[in-house]
Amino acid sequence: MKRLVALCAALLAFGGCVTPRGGAEKAAFASVRKALPGAKVRRLHDGVLYAVATTSAPARVHVVAIDLAQPGIAVKPVLGHDRLDGGTTSREPIVSMARRTGALALMNGDYTSEERNVEALTVIDGRVLYSPDPPKRAGMVIAADGTVKFGLFGMALNAHERRQAVGGGPKIMEAGVFRWDVSTPGLINGEDFPRVPPGRWDIRHPLTAYCSTSRPKTLLLVAVDGRSPGVSLGMTPWELGLLLKNLDCQEALRLDGGGSTGLTVGPVLMTLPPEGYPEGRPIGIALGIFHR
């Protein structure tokens, strides 16, 4: 109890003390506190927690924990300007997306191409908007019952299994084990990444990932700020893997990172904006958490 009182006092300046409600919130809170000692935590909604902490590296880490079994929230992708195609003209800063949609929180998602806002499977409210055949990169699907899966998905999934889906890649955790195989040029963990220059992953970058935990229907969105000496350097994939493991992630997907890394809480950008983009670099798609 003394420890909880001390934690409450430390969090007052951050918007109040969070006393976890229910098993999913308690488990997420415990995982965040274990992985990120001293993290400041806010409740955005019943079943939705936001935490931020800075490691000794330094690396500033943002985590949104979502209980997908909560009846009052919905999680789904948001396209830039609600458009799939259009190339660079259809991309949108993440703060603009947050204002336009009224999301509780938004985090960046899939990579973009010259032709469209996404490169992998994209499903919104059961409607399949894009489905490469065969799939070359992994994605995340959320079933109608809140179950989360990560992998290479095509049209084989039925409508119940793919209520929402957002792409990215590569898949970097399976059964709690981190994997990062770049031994074959143009591939990461067997997924198609032909434009990645050799040696890129030996240095720290801003990074983004989604993961599921050992508790059913709990989803974590993780963003790491970077490229800001003295504030946050970012992480290598291996450092991200250790962080995800400490957060109790069992399956995880990396997303577009670097200057595209972005997280909003309400209409406020919580991550560091890239130079020249105070509302975040225009992106093609984000994953949003909403009031139902």
Structure report:
With 292 residues, this protein is of the alpha+beta class. It has one domain (23-291). The chain contains 4 helices and 20 strands. It has helices spanning 2-11, 22-35, 94-101, 237-246; strands at 40-45, 48-54, 60-67, 73-79, 105-108, 122-124, 127-130, 139-142, 148-151, 164-167, 171-174, 177-178, 187-188, 191-192, 207-213, 218-224, 249-254, 263-265, 268-269, 285-291. The strands form 5 sheets. The chain has an 8-stranded antiparallel sheet with strand order 1-2-3-16-15-17-11-12, with helices on one face. Strands 4-20-5-18-19 form a 5-stranded antiparallel sheet, with helices on one face. A hairpin with a 4-residue loop joins β15 (207-213) and β16. The longest helix has 14 residues, at 22-35. The protein is globular, with a radius of gyration of 18 Å. The two termini are 34 Å apart. Residues 1-16 have low confidence and may be disordered.
